[in-house]
Amino acid sequence: MEQYNGIKHADDTNDAFFIAELLRLNILPTGHIYNAHLRPMRDLLRRRLMLVHHRTALMLSFKSLYSRTTGLAMSLGFLKELEVKEAQELYQHPANQLIAGLQIKHIDQLTESIQKIEKAVLDSARALPSYAKLTTLPGVGKILGMTITMEVGEIQRFAGPGEFASYCRTVEAKRISNKKKKGENNSKCGNKYLAWAFVEAANFARRSPECLAWFNRKAAKTNNILAIKALACKLAKAAWYLMAEETDYDSKRMFGQQTK
Fold it and tell me: Could you give phi then psi for residue 176, rounded to 5 degrees?
């Protein structure tokens, strides 16, 4: 909350009067206090994402080392199956053998930690009624279902699907006057973890025929990036209905009646 810039003198009395005036006008920004019982699990799931980023960086570093040393490319599936001894045998120089063994060891340790976190959070997410509903959305699997469930908390704090989609950073943040764009607003306002989850869900949802057909029509009018963002917005709004109204997913309600 920014302080009013028009006042000459500021003290506790004036600040209290200013806050009371915002309350009277019903424009005082308020925050949400997350459930204290679920907060540790939500934070644990966020740590998982950090570990996944570290593991991805190590895998890319290992593939880059192999490519620079041998001039060949290594598939991700082959890398995941490597043992420490097998990774060391790929190189002749002792320094490369050492770094290869350490990287494979760290990747295995990170994978084990990630799996432990997933199991712990999944047990808590399954107890929440919205988790089972969310996994019926196109593109939403176990990990994304857990992420959305834990990050949302109480869906009742969002008045409608538009407010929820805005919180998920899936809507435009622009300033319009006289039907003309005058600038950009704060596009970072919202939850970055939900923004990531619904964009990931939109990419996976293109495997569904209904989602792919809608995406292709949108991409033909704009571009692939805007089409993915638009599909993520539709998924976010659909998720609000699944959680707030406890309805079942219906592709006809989301995309309308498909014409042949």
Answer: -120, 135
Closest by CA to 138, choosing from 203, 186, 184, 185, is 203
Q: Do 112 and 187 belong together in one domain?
A: no
Residue 243 CA to its chain's centroid (Å): 17
Kindly state whether residues 156 and 245 are assigned to the same domain: yes
pLDDT average per 10 residues of sequence, the chain (260 residues)? 73 87 87 88 93 96 94 92 93 94 96 94 87 92 92 90 92 80 76 94 93 93 93 94 90 72
Domain of residue 142: give its range.
134-255
Q: Name the residue among 185, 174, 145, 168 with its Cα closest to residue 237.
A: 168
Residue at which a domain ends, from 72, 107, 127: 127
**What number of other Cβ atoms are within 10 A of residue 147's Cβ?**
26
Are residue 140 and residue 243 in the same domain, yes or no? yes
Cα gap 86→97, rounded to integer Å:
10
